[in-house]
Amino acid sequence: MDIPPRLRVNAPHVIGESVDGEALIVNLETGAYYSATGVGDAIWTLLAEGAGVAAIVNAITARYPAAAAGESVHAFLAELVEEGLAVGDSGAEPSTAAPAGVSLPAAFTAPVLQKYTDMQDLLLLDPIHEVDDTGWPSALPGA
Length: 143
Hints:
The protein is α+β, with helices and mostly antiparallel strands. It has one domain (7-118). It has helices at residues 39-48, 53-63, 67-82, 120-125; strands at 7-9, 14-19, 22-27, 33-37, 86-88, 114-116.
């Protein structure tokens, strides 16, 4: 699968966060949720920070010079696109420099995207709500 030179998180349909070295990602349209650790977490973090595909590949291959590292990064990014978690971004020309501060594990392990569907019904039944200072649920005005 060809991936565009610039990707972005498919927000608002996809939310994700990195917690203690694990990327936790939820596709609110399908109800599936995902997990990626190690290099996969670093790739998700770089993507969420706006790094272009070349910057992500450069950051990983600079740390892990094995030829398989670049191929693994491309395969992982293609899987993110295939699952609808990332989409092409036609915005500004992507930078080849990766954002600083993304931690990478000591040893390279090919990134793996774990997919879970056991809570699909629940996630699709009650969408995740944005909550403001008034809390949720909020009474309708005039009610």
